[in-house]
Amino acid sequence: MRVFLGVPEQAVSPLVLTIGNFDGVHLGHQAMLRQLRERADRLGLPAAVLTFEPHPREVFTPDQAPARLTSLREKLALLEACGVDQVYLFRFSRARAAMSADDFITRYLVQVRHVIIGDDFRFGQGRKGDLTLLKARGEQYGFTAEALETVVQQGDRVSSSAVREALVQGQLAHAAELLGRPYSIAGRVVHGDKIGRTIGFPTANVQLKRKRVPMRGVFAVTVSGLDKRQLPGAANIGVRPTVAGGLKPVLEVHLLDFAQDIYGTHVSVHFRHRLRDEIKFDSFDALKRQIALDVQATQDYFSGEQHG
Questions:
Q1: pLDDT tens-digit profile of 34-74?
Q2: Where are the domains of the chain?
Q3: Which segments in the chain show pLDDT lower than 50?
Q4: How much is the pLDDT for 193?
């Protein structure tokens, strides 16, 4: 898959295109990408995605912007796995947000032969661009357009917001149903303050390239990227109120029965089961006792005692 820091007007050949944020690449996104792949194969053209970076709400309301489900690297990997040939990273800004829907079409869709959008997708100043406008301008400029209906899973509209809400509520199984896979966070293992090893529970500090995380707490997880298997572990994601009490979230994983040097390795942490909230303890001894209980609960979960 090729990634471009630009827009489809720079494409060297015609495209079949879909447009959106694609945060999480959930089942709704996957349905759209299957449609994109089918249309591209039928026309013999590349399947392309135009996605916004940063997220528009991070530009207009940064303090209220939602936590990202996926980093840019994670999103690109998921798009590639769905068969996308090309990705265009649209550098979103206030100036581009002020562009009219007509200008957006004439400037950025000149190389598009077919465009697919979600049924609720809007673009251009005042969100005036929609499927009706795309179809009308398509007749002028030589492209066709269609909208994909919302995907519903067990009565719920599949959306990034629905995934975030499930994660906040600790409903990992429901989040997995909306995503089509367990929720995961990927990152490089970096050096931390190494407090875990001093209390008998060494942890892998997984780098979080995001200001906010969609959930907090202690979880039973599996980790991929270290072995052919997914390795079990107990993870804490949050601000570590007992240790630091800071505002920057961290992700730390204690791998069960594992003692290798993995600094610098890129791993994915798959969240399987929520154990408890993140809480502040009165002492390191109290924290150590609770971690021991968390590790035991994790072992019980993976041994099947929590499944029955």
A1: 999 999 999 999 999 999 888 778 888 888 888 999 999 99
A2: 2-153, 182-303
A3: 306-308
A4: 65
At the top level of CATH, which class does the domain 182-303 belong to?
Answer: mainly beta
In sequence order, the 6+-apart residues with CB closer than 8 A to the CB of 143 are 109, 112, 113, 114, 115
Residue tagged 């998921």 (tokens): 78
The reported pLDDT for the residue numbered 261 is 84
Buried b or exposed e, range 206-215, using 16+ CB within 10 angstroms: bbbebeebbb
Supply the pLDDT for residue 139.
93
Residue type, 186: A
Strands (DSSP E) contained in the chain are 2-4, 15-19, 47-53, 86-91, 112-118, 144-148, 152-153, 156-157, 184-190, 204-206, 217-224, 231-238, 250-255, 266-276
| pTM of the full structure | 0.88
Q: Extract the tokens encoding 13.
A: 């050949």
| DSSP single-letter state for residue 106 | H
Collapsing DSSP to helix, strand or coil, 148 comes out as strand
- The answer to whether 118 touches 50, Cβ cutoff 8 Å, is no
